[in-house]
Amino acid sequence: MTAVAVRVDNLGKQYRIGGDRPAGELMAREVVSRLAVAPFHKLVGAARRLWTLPTNGTAPRSSAPHHIWALRHVSFEVPRGQILGIIGANGAGKSTLLKILSRITEPTEGRVEIYGRVASLLEVGTGFHPELTGRENVYLSGALLGMRKAEIDRKLGEIIAFAEVAKFAETPVKHYSSGMYVRLAFAVAAHLEPDILIVDEVLAVGDVAFQRKCLDKMEDVRQRGRTVLFVSHNMQAVTRLCERVLLVSGGAVQEDGPASEVARRYLLSSLRATPTATWEDPRTAPGDEIVRLRSVRVVDESEHTIASLDIRRPVGIEMVYDVFEAGHVLVPAYHLYNESGTCVFVTHDVAPEWRGRIRPCGRFTSLVWVPGNFFAEGVLFVWASISTHRPFRNHVTCRDVVAFHVTDTLDGDSARGDWDGNIAGIVRPLLTWTTTSRALPSSIHHAHQADP
Amino acid sequence: MTKDLEQGAAIATNILAKGVASLDSPPPPVRPTVIEASRGWVPLKLSLLWEYREVLYFLVWRDIKVRYRQTLIGATWAIIQPFTTMVVFSVFFGRLAKMPSDGMPYPLFAFAALVPWTFFANGLALSANSLVHSGHLITKVYFPRLLVPMARVLTGLPDFALSFLVLLGMIWWYGLLHSRPALAWLPALALLAFVTSLGVGLWLSALNVQYRDVQHAVPFLIQVWLFATPIAYPVSLLPEPWRTIYGLNPMVGVVEGFRWALLGRGNTPGPTAVASALAALAILITGAFFFRRVERTFADVI
Fold first, then answer.
1. Which pLDDT score is estimated for A292?
2. Which of residues 279-308 of A touch B (CB under 8 A)?
3. If chain A, 452 residues long, is cut into consecutive pieces of 10 residues, what is the mean pLDDT of each piece?
């Protein structure tokens, strides 16, 4: 039986980017007169735009320079009961696809048919309100994710128990630890019973135990013959969970096939990842109303951007971000992943200057140094994120935002020594070995010499 | 460690149990949900609103629960706002300016109008900003977006009920509390205030997504509207036919209707009330269609 769960046909999504045309060169007189009438021009333009913008299906738009296709000519089918992995670099169109399938945004062209009840988990704790208690948030979030009140009534005890927050069920979640918050949020999601589950990997950002719980849950869903669409960067998770993977790149499906094969090709293509990422336009930069990321880069000791790192040298990872809303404690962090998708480490800013302090508005630059002789060879992918920890709120998470290549040396002064073969391990520290010696007791020495 | 193992075992049993259960799980529905680009004007899909009524319920419930958390005097705020305005009006318009009040005691005259007005104005202000404030939901989960401004206006109902009780208390204190058939009109008048608030809220909330100018204009709009509505003064200051035209401001019908129904004085609803009801309906319907038309861009623009 190969009933179709999701059918995507020639899907496309176009976004409008940029704003008014550049002003060009103007004479002073013109500048003055333009300033005077500009607000009216803007109003008229706005009114006109408002009527034309929503008709986002009109074809001639495609050639206009202010429009880009985030997704185009995407077609695929997902049979019922399949776990489909969707991978791709940042900006490849994964999120757009996810948002269309979740009915959050409309496509510009094409069509999707969905057979069955859909639940999409695009964030941890959809609809959670910090002032509400744990129990109240279960109801709110459950209802938003598509559960009926009667269903929540029935499952409430189970959800609270699963999240291990029974003692705090009547406490506002703003007093929860981030672990409790995430557990409760996930418990709600875990008790949905959709025919089709759409999961963003954002869910898998958390501690290891939580990540495993997520993966176990999807395993569980598959066992029950449900369909899962799983967007991920985590190669291990994709290859472990999904039979089939779509590689999305440049807004199109580049590869569609068995997971391990597509995952390998994806890694090859993502080696082109860059050591810098910059967002010129603060409105579209990743983040929320509180903080937005402006740039991330990988630097050497003299703070020059580098794409390739000598294994012996320290490396700095710098993020520049704008705080728009004062009064929040913000914790910048990096996750570093190696080529096989293993998280090498996570580092939070624990420096005393801003730890636990609320930030004023302004532009901040946070730089962390990783000592030399630490990484193993290969490509390291950096995820940059900024969160508030109590209560937990993730403001930005940029996956694979920058990457750099670590190269070992044959000079003999790295952990490799004089060995020129492969070395296993996800880190390659240069450790201090000590060896002491003393003379052999003469009995052993003689016995050894006599032996052959 | 042992805990992890236990959990693993629990998950495994779960999988097994549910795996068996899935054998007799129902086949997927035959009619698919279709996602396509919509163009131009789109139907309101009122049936969808009904389907998602529980989401509306929880959104209202959330706002009511959260509203007065971490305040000292809680729901008393619901009364303070119209009551203080009434006192100010009574002093400046009633006493100093000697404003006529159609034979009613001026404080009562003002308060009977301020109770529905406050419901309207707060509903309008909250719903105008509702979509922008719910950006985190709109970009993360699907539900009919019309529910967002709708929930915000409904959130004002408990406040409205509270201040209405205070109003009844005041009428009793003035010894004017009598049962009269006109009272039966009150629910309809409250509905008219709701419809007006929601209608304007739909327009403004949808516009606000694209142009944040709206949130700066709203307080100003409410202030102007307050004086364009016969709250501090009686509508009888205006001669016909201006009075009927004046009724195109739906709040004229609401405010005059409240005074008439509760106090039995003032103007019996006539052409003015009809004009108000029609205008409110027109605002609501156009607002709903406009909202639906621009709704498709919310998640991209917000």
1. 94
2. 288-289
3. 84 74 42 59 67 46 64 92 85 87 91 90 86 93 92 93 89 89 85 86 60 69 82 68 85 85 65 79 89 94 87 94 93 90 91 91 95 89 92 89 81 81 84 91 77 54
CA–CA dist A384, A404 (Å, integer): 14
Domains contained in chain A, CATH given = 71-270 (3.40.50.300), 276-407 (2.70.50.60)
Q: Provide the chain B residues 111-130 that lie in CB contact (below 8 A) with chain A.
A: none
Neighboring chain B residues of A58 at a CB cutoff of 8 Å: 39
Per-domain residue ranges for chain B?
A: 49-301
**Looking at CA atoms only, how far is residue A95 from chain B in angstroms?**
11
Asked whether the whole model's pTM tops 0.95, one would answer no
Please state the φ and ψ torsions of residue A90, each to the nearest 5 degrees. Answer: -60, 135
Contact B33 A118 (CB under 8 A): yes
Chain A contact for B212 (CB, 8 A cutoff): no
Q: Does B216 touch chain A (CB under 8 A)?
A: no
List the one residue out of A430, A373, A376 whose CA is nearest residue A405.
A376
The answer, for B139 touching chain A at a CB cutoff of 8 Å, is yes
Rounded CA separation B150/B115 (Å):
20
For residue A20 the two structure tokens come to 């008014």
Angle B2-22/A208-223 helices, nearest 10 degrees? 20
Q: Which residues contact A107 (CB under 8 A, 6 or more apart)?
A: A11, A12, A13, A71, A100, B35, B36, B37
Cα–chain-centroid distance for residue A64?
31
- Residue A117 tokens read as 């009840």
A244 in contact with B, Cβ within 8 Å:
no
Report whether the peptide linkage leading into residue B241 is cis, meaning its omega lies within 30 degrees of zero: yes
Interface of B with A in 167-206 (CB under 8 A): none
What's the rounded Cα separation, in Å, for the pair B87 and B81? Answer: 10
**Residues of chain A found within 8 Å of residue B11, distances taken between Cβ atoms:** 216, 220
Nearest to B143 among A108, A131, A144 (CB): A144
